[in-house]
Amino acid sequence: MPGFAFLTRILVVLALGAALAAQADEIEVRGARLSSTEEGLVLDAEFAFDFNPRLAEAIANGVPLYFAVEFELMRPRWYWFDEKSASKRMQIRLSYHAMSRQYRLSTGLLQQSFGSLEEALHVLRRVRNWLVVDHTAMLGNASYEAAVRMRLDIAQLPKPFQVSALTSPEWHLESQWARFAFRPPPAPTAGADAREAKGAEAK
Length: 203
Description:
three-stranded antiparallel beta sheet, 5 helices
């Protein structure tokens, strides 16, 4: 029966995916915090993970690894679906250069070099002052739910490695979404601004 054979293949694929997810190495979100600045909301986050021998070998052989840090800010609504107020994604590239014997972390135009893999991972595990919500965003005086996660982006691997990564748990390194409540600080009123300016003039 063709239909039964097709269904069987689908079930096998789903079972394989569940098994890989169960065996995959995990990233733990140790902590996350949003702070308000003049530029907007910035995120600090701590992650905990180690490289298995397969990933360490790939880096040592010159295969760059790309990590994605993803952020979401949602406003819960009891009468409808939650509203996504903001989302941001940061890509971090980890590579090894045999000529200089240096490990490099690259984020946009920013590059940092390290003498050992552990030094590079120490920085990779920490996100500092990441602007996730611009000051121009109109956030209401309400409770929000923030969420952050980190994962190894296997879609950025060289093509030959992508095939292996689809079936090998050694290439799967990711965290669950870590969620926490957040309420934006109240915006200063016009009266408060005037009183502050008057106080500054008095000084």
